[in-house]
């Protein structure tokens, strides 16, 4: 295989909060938000890598950081063999690596005509004569499906799809090799999306372009990507050839994303959609170990605990709510009290019955049930720490202790369901404390 056009290694982009002068004087440690947390991937020349994940997972920050539009916290980006962050002059890189943004309305200056917007990169880089540039702009407009006669019109005079075509023509002006397409069709109607996707594919074939195609919707990347990388909370959790990602997804998060893609086939539309439990955790305080463990339907129980997967998910949800202070004794009292009852006067048995009713729809048996019952006993006695400890002791999962990594193969998934390297004891400790 030839060298990739783009190689991203362990890229990190953190934002630091609590880093004002007062914070420093008070000795407060800066708190980091790990928008991009050590990701690595590469893109071959002429290839399209789709980068997908829910909103806020770090996809756009990845695109902007690798283009050096944001300063990285760490890691390395090599473009055509050169370390981008070591370059003293980014002029040549800026010509060869371009970006198309999601919202064509806010990304185009409303005071400039379409012609001026497309011409601007040529002006900035001093490419061609004045009349040559106008000609080049007209040529680009026609190439992206606009008419050269629209050159003096303003963005508001174009439809959403046409505005995105202006953005694409601008990105093409300097004849780049690589374009980051940051949700380029998300703001468009479905029928227009298909036209713009076709245009992007035609341009790729004609000019041999290499794309990083960012989207939150897996179905959008399916027809344009050669490979797909799936991101969750700042990390890549799976990467592989597009067909394999769709037909044989490995990571439970990718599987859940695919479940949420609408299907045309009605028999499939009626299938039982596997919804994820819980919200996306805050990147300010991501879960330890596997970041997806607070929502994962396949979270792995300890080897010596026999429990159905669905019931284990409920056990883990209860633990999560306990540990994040999401359930409180006064809250349970309110919930359990009938219309004529005083919440403060409810006895412990009523409170525990309410906890079972609210938190567990699946039957627990034997030791598992006894452990949860003991935890409830402690909780209603106002011993939250004890309630947490009892649960942790029996139910702690490898998924919360060890951070899974991508294995070195063509279609890896960062998940303990697949082979993971055994971490050294000191690394294990470091991981738990860092997370
Ligand atoms: S490591 Fe565990 S929690 Fe994470 S995706 Fe795999 S099974 Fe789920």
How would you characterize the overall build of this protein?
This protein is an alpha/beta fold and 435 residues long. 40% of the residues lie in helices and 15% in strands. The chain contains 18 helices and 10 strands. The strands form 2 sheets. A 6-stranded mixed β-sheet has the order 6-7-8-3-9-10, with helices on both faces. Helix 7 (190-207) links the parallel strand 7 (178-182) and strand 8. Helix 4 packs parallel to helix 6 (160-172) and helix 5 packs across helix 6. Mean pLDDT is 90; it is low at 265-274 and 426-435. Bound molecules: iron/sulfur cluster. Iron/sulfur cluster is lined by residues 251-252, 290, 292-293, 296, 298-300, 399, 404, 415-417.
- N-to-C CA distance: 36 Å
| Residue share in β-strands | 15-25%
Order of helices and strands: EHEEHEEHEHHHEHEHEEHHHHHHHHHH
Helical segment tally? Answer: 18
What is the CATH domain class of the largest domain?
Answer: Alpha Beta
Supply the helix-strand structural class: alpha/beta
Cofactors, ions and other ligands in the entry: iron/sulfur cluster
> Mind telling me the C-alpha Rg?
26 Å
- On the 0 to 100 scale, the average pLDDT is 90
Q: For the largest beta sheet, what order do the strands appear in spatially?
A: 6-7-8-3-9-10
Quaternary structure annotation: single chain
Full CATH superfamily name of the largest domain: P-loop containing nucleotide triphosphate hydrolases
The CATH architecture assignment of the largest domain turns out to be 3-Layer(aba) Sandwich
How many separate domains make up the residues? 2
Give me the count of strands.
10
């Amino acid at each position: 295989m030839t060298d990739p056009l783009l190689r991203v290694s362990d890229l990190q982009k953190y934002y630091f909060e609590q880093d004002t002068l007062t914070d420093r004087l008070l000795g407060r440690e800066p708190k980091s938000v790990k928008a991009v947390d050590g990701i690595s991937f590469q893109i071959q020349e002429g290839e399209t890598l789709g980068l997908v994940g829910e909103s806020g997972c770090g996809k756009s920050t990845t695109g902007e950081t690798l283009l050096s539009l944001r300063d990285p916290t760490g890691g390395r980006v090599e473009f055509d063999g050169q370390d981008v962050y070591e370059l003293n002059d980014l002029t040549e890189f800026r010509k060869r690596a371009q970006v198309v943004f999601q919202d064509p309305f806010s990304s185009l200056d409303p005071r400039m005509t379409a012609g001026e917007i497309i011409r601007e990169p040529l002006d900035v880089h001093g490419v061609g004569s004045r009349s040559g540039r106008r000609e080049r702009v007209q040529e680009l407009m026609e190439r992206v499906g606009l008419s050269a006669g629209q050159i003096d019109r303003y963005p508001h005079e174009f439809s959403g799809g046409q505005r995105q075509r202006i953005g694409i023509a601008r990105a093409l002006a300097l004849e780049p090799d690589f374009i980051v397409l940051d949700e380029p069709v998300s703001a468009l109607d479905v029928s227009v999306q298909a036209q713009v996707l076709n245009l992007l594919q035609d341009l790729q074939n004609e000019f041999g372009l290499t794309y990083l195609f960012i989207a939150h919707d897996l179905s959008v990347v399916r027809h344009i990507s050669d490979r797909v990388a799936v991101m969750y909370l700042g990390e890549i959790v799976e990467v592989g050839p597009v067909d394999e990602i769709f037909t044989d997804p490995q990571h439970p998060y990718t599987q859940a994303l695919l479940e949420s893609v609408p299907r045309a086939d009605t028999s499939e539309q009626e299938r039982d959609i596997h919804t994820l439990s819980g919200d996306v955790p805050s990147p300010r305080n991501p879960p330890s170990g596997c970041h997806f463990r607070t929502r994962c339907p396949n979270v792995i129980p300890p080897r010596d605990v026999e429990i159905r997967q669905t019931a284990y998910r409920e056990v883990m949800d209860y633990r999560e709510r306990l540990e994040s202070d999401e359930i409180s004794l006064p809250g349970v009292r309110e919930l359990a009290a009938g219309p004529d009852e005083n919440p403060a006067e409810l006895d412990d048995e009523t409170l525990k019955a309410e906890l079972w009713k609210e938190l567990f729809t699946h039957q627990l048996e034997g030791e598992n049930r006894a452990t949860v019952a003991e935890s409830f006993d402690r909780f209603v006695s106002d011993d939250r720490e004890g309630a947490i400890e009892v649960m942790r002791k029996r139910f702690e999962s490898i998924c919360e202790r060890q951070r899974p990594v991508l294995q070195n193969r063509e279609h890896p998934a960062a998940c303990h369901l697949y082979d993971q390297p055994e971490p050294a004891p000191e690394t294990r400790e470091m991981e738990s404390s860092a997370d």
